[in-house]
Amino acid sequence: MRKNGTIRLSPSTIGLYKDCKRCFWLKFNGRERPAGIFPSLPSGMDGVIKKYFDKYRGGMPPELQGRMEGILMHDLTTLNKWRNWRTGLVYEDKTRNAALFGALDDCLEIGDNYAPLDYKTRGFAPKDGGEAYYQHQLDAYTFLLRANNYKVADFAYLVYYYPEKVEENGVVYFNVEPKKVAVNTDDAKKSFEDAVDFLKEPEPKVHSYRTSCAYCNWQINEEFD
Prior knowledge:
single chain, alpha+beta, Lambda Exonuclease, Chain A, five-stranded mixed sheet, four-stranded mixed sheet, 34% helix, PD-(D/E)XK endonuclease-like domain-containing protein, PDDEXK_AddAB-type
């Protein structure tokens, strides 16, 4: 999005840039790829999990004790600001007239350092290496903390929730699996800068993205049908 002439990127738009540079360029130039149906269950779970974690500020939920480093961030007032993209962490690049913003799910305190914590709801157990899909997101959150003068750890956490069984009265049991992920704030900064610079280039040709993007492939097929 753009606000008062400033290019504003989030971890999700940087994810689109990494997925397909052409679709990313089109999004910021009024031709966004069609959006799929967004499931409401993960969003609902996200809100419920946040309320649950908030009961353990300065500690850790029992099922995660001994499985993660640090404690949940004490300051709920600040965390609630970070959870809202309107009031969350922002990094401004005045040279490029651009900004990176993000909304954290949660944050850990490890001594004097901070580490992002992100909840993920899935229908099945996470696969080995699956956390790589969220690498840019965790890198960006850590970079935002550092850019706002917070000391940061060199890792972040994902906490996966996936269903185990259903019992009477609508009770659903979930497995909970934390994943520690090494982060690189330099990669986050470079991805942000590269994405902003790419928006200043001419429109990418669709044929350049034939093999890597299903939407671009569909456009090519439409042209030649």
